[in-house]
Write a structure and sequence with these properties.
single chain, 3% strand, mainly alpha, 201 residues, Heme Oxygenase, Chain A, two-stranded antiparallel ribbon
């Protein structure tokens, strides 16, 4: 019999595969502008989601503060010579995932932290093709040598929450599904590095 975590992975696999096809940074013709645009789109999605997480009811994971991505993204973009303007034209994603309650919001973290884990493969690819300096890849590096440990810690929290009740399992999986769907739509909508002020080349 499949575990709750195995059921979650199976249910989400099609959404995971679709977003990988949408956010294709593994092609050999990748440019620095492609990479910048990806980071800007990611910031436009993650920043409002993290703001919602800060207001979520219930008890958040003890290590949540270590998982915030917004400042990493802003630092990374600054190193690339890009600063999102104070009056960015990005609208908020039309349908943010439901992030108003823990442990449901663990579904969001499953998606975002999974991309941090997968970012290690992307990082090696971009290092070869774009010759990124360390400061230009802080978002993808994430937790550096602690990436694996942070992922395992999240899986332990997820396993406990998924196993606690059928209702929790359903809500967590649905939040993860919403996150995949909304993030895919967001990347499709914003293909270019819009609403940016170039501060360096």
């Amino acid at each position: 019999m499949a575990t709750p975590l195995e059921r979650m992975r199976g249910a989400l696999r099609p959404y995971h595969d679709r977003i990988e096809q949408t956010v294709d940074l593994m092609h050999p013709a990748i440019t620095r502008d492609d990479y910048r645009a990806f980071l800007v789109r990611t910031l436009g999605f993650i920043e409002p989601c993290e703001a919602a997480l800060r207001r979520a009811r219930g008890t958040p994971p003890a290590d949540l503060a270590a998982r915030w991505k917004t400042e990493l993204l802003r630092t990374n973009l600054a190193a690339l010579g890009i600063e999102p303007s104070a009056n960015a034209s990005f609208a908020l994603p039309a349908d943010l995932p439901h992030l108003d309650r823990w442990p449901d919001a663990l579904g969001y973290l499953y998606v975002i932290e999974g991309s941090t884990l997968g970012g290690q493969v992307l990082l090696r690819h971009l290092a070869r093709h774009l010759a990124l300096a360390d400061a230009e890849s802080v978002f993808l590096r994430g937790y550096d040598r602690e990436v694996g440990g942070m992922w395992k810690a999240l899986l332990a929290q997820l396993t406990a929450a998924l196993s606690s009740s059928a209702a929790n399992e359903s809500a967590i999986v649905e939040t993860a599904r919403q996150t995949f769907v909304t993030l895919e739509a967001w990347h499709r909508r914003h293909r270019a590095p819009e609403a940016l002020r170039r501060t360096a080349t």
